[in-house]
């Protein structure tokens, strides 16, 4: 349902993604692991076209975008892809001047032009799903990090994206607060939410992810079912990296 093929992404002279291909099945959870600087965040940003690769192809839902050096895809194509993705960031990035409910409603009202009442009802449902219906009127600054991240997840899910992209969703949180975010992600996985997450959190990679992709120096060195890849990686380099996580 999501396919990246031969993606090349450079910043000036710095080649960050080198012929990256990745397939993500509907309803599956893929963990992207790899050392700092290996290109995990850049890869996530290429899926929602926050970065525009120089070469390769992205297929998401019914949309197919081809990347050609020096040519930006059409604005409509970019917007269609963005609407099919939701992004959760390491540092939550809630709108500080909106309540929890306001954060979740924002894209429904401003981008999708939903009537206020309908947007409110859906947003309350989503806050309930992440266990925060009682915090609907709280400001981000009044919420713990774990609560802020759960609001961020509800916000990302509001427009019913085809894939939820998470960039190190638990790494800014104390272990105890991370647990509540892990539980929400586990629940979404059980419900069949398609997710691609860059993370080193073993609760996410080893327990929740179905597939793992190991990115090293801008190359995907190895992909495979999470259990198999953790138990018996094929590449020595993968084994070495995984041993640093355990
Ligand atoms: P990771 O998330 O795996 O730590 P990133 O995708 O953030 O890796 O970064 C990969 C490489 O790309 C790093 O060398 C980083 O410095 C570089 N990079 C990322 N974003 C930019 C940017 N906007 N401009 C220039 N270089 C960037
Ligand atoms: Mg990163």
From TrEMBL:
InterPro entries assigned to the protein according to its UniProt record, in alphabetical order: AAA+_ATPase, ABC_ATPase_HisP-typ, ABC_transporter-like_ATP-bd, ABC_transporter-like_CS, MetN_ABC_transporter-like, P-loop_NTPase
Gene Ontology CC terms, in alphabetical order: plasma membrane
Topology of the protein relative to the lipid bilayer: Peripheral membrane protein
The ABC transporter domain, residue ranges: 2-242
One GO molecular-function entry: ATP binding
Protein's UniProt keywords contain Glycoprotein: no
Main location: membrane
Localisation per UniProt entry: Cell membrane
Keywords, alphabetical: ATP-binding, Cell membrane, Membrane, Nucleotide-binding, Transport
Keyword Membrane: yes
One Pfam family recorded for the sequence: ABC_tran
Family stated for the protein in its record: Belongs to the ABC transporter superfamily.
Protein name: Amino acid ABC transporter ATP-binding protein
Annotated organism of origin: Ancylobacter pratisalsi
